From TrEMBL:
Motif window: Nudix box: 258-280
The protein's name: ADP-ribose pyrophosphatase
Keyword Metal-binding: yes
Keyword field contains Ribonucleoprotein: no
Species this protein is from: Roseovarius lutimaris
EC number: 3.6.1.13
Top enzyme class: hydrolase
Amino acid sequence: MTGPVFVYGPLGWGPLLRAVLGQDGLDRARIAYLPEHEVTAQSGAPLMAGLSPGTGRVEGWLVSECDAAARLAYFAEAFGMGAPTPVTLDLAGLNAEAQTFPGQPGPEPWHQGGWANLWGDLILTAAAEITELMTRIPAADLGGRLQMVLSRASARLAAGRGVPADLRSVTEASQVDEIASDISHAGYFLSRDYTLRHPRFDGSMSAPMRREVFVATDAALVLPYDPVTDRVLLVEQFRMGPYGRGDVRPWMLEPVAGRMDAGETAEQTARRECLEEAGLELRALETISSHYCTPGYSTEYFHLFLGLCDLPAETVGQGGLASEQEDIRTHIIGYERAMALLESGEADNGPLILSLMWLERERARLRASA
């Protein structure tokens, strides 16, 4: 896009414009109005909004500088805001021609304050990654990976809350000297190279070191358990990790698992995934743990639960979403057989091992209260 562009609503939010254009770019933008329109949104305060005909006028920003307009067009395409549409604006009492994006309108008025409280930090965190990807990935391709970008942003925000440090060092990440950071791979998954120095336990700083990190999302995992019949449900599916390692049998037995979407809690993800992968409605969730999986090189973080439910009589079933190319087989087995998987080594999936060990400890309580 080379001509002037008018942005409004979420894309015209000042902090996001500053993140995309820089302060100089924001200073060169001018406030303008689109008559006979209003900004509306879908129910549930979605990430994006859109234009609807109305009796009022929409306040936004007119961005005329070509590179800045192109950057905003990239964001708009990645977020699915539709093809550019010509509009006539009111610019300080004069008409101005520009293009805008119709967005994702809905039945509800959009309010910046409520939207910013709910989505502002997430969109700013995601914008930092999207800005880095502009020269690497076409906007249309990024749109297909947008949920992963948003999920990574959500995980980064969650990590910023931290956990207690009663035994370990209270040294914070802000004391690490980050010399350089760059995306080394940007596909469906993302890898990042860091060059940094970190504080040592003796008070000195380490020598500069280069490290690669696999930037993953947070995930929720659930072991469904029926305390009345004393049975569990396991998921079986082909996994690339074992295949890439050279495992002779790269089909794994696992708990139900899924990536946390932006805006979801771990509990919401757990319940959603049980419906999608196994057709199960959970009565309650018991928290097992929240933990890093491989902190030496991956950001992946697991929220592990046991899900109390009524398991069907069928012992083998099918599940998963065709849209995600999932080919899932479910197994419903008794407690004793599940524990035998630990003894034989057939249970070689970390979350499954941890879940079964937790169930062994808590089984009597769960059955007594069923």
